[in-house]
Amino acid sequence: MRIGVDLGGTKIEMIALRDDGAPLLRRRVPTPAKDYLGILDAVADLVIFAEQELAQKGTVGVATPGAISPKTGFIKNSNSIVLNGKPLNRDLSIKLGRPIRLENDANCFALSEAVDGAAAQAGIVFGVILGTGVGGGLVVNRQLITGRNKIAGEWGHNPLPWAGENERPGPRCYCGKSGCIETFLSGAGLARDYHTRTGLDLSARDIALSVTARDHNATECFDAYKNRLARSLATAINVLDPDAIVLGGGLSNLTQLYDELLGLIAIHSFSDSIDTPIMRAQHGDSSGVRGAAWLWPAISAV
To answer: Looking at residue 171, what is its pLDDT?
Structure first.
């Protein structure tokens, strides 16, 4: 049995999987706000609950915002700031009395979709999160590639490619730089662009509904978003040339996002033709927790 835990900002989700990936048990609890020790207890309680309920022990993988710093062994780059600077991997291992495996939530998403999700037949898979933030993960032959500095797949903190005059220097990003892809392609980035054009505040979902209703401003805003997404994915294709790209996060559920996207990517890619499949995640919001469960058989030593 494999147990996965997805440590989110508002909820902690647990899943137990059979070896073939079939789910045995799920449970969600609220994330203790700004309480590191409470988070440790909540994760441990979920694992203990699963093992007692199913009467067997399992391996434990954890998906978390941020990553483990190779330099310090502590969590870095987490937007759940209570985790930053904490030895989460070590503390959870001590709490549970066994080794655990911990990875960035976008990496777990990519792993899930590459192992038994939308891209299960693909060799090189680039998993993309389009939501509150913009993250990514890279999987090759069902093996997670994290990189020397544990930042492989962090495409959201590169500059928006081929930025126009009206896109420079770009909004300030929480990472301290300006014009990051994340500031344009996050849900907040789409909403900000619509506000700039209209003075109105709409969510990303409502903007998509307005496109369906043939609202001119919403259509222009969404077209600009797709163009920015295409430019950004083109650079990823130029570097990785993956067999498949899988989109996840709230914005990936907007069906209009996929219209003409590959043609827009082709304009900016260094090839005479591009046929890379752009897929919607098969496991949806469960991809992160499923990927955490798959960390034990599928994690790479890279």
So the answer is: 96
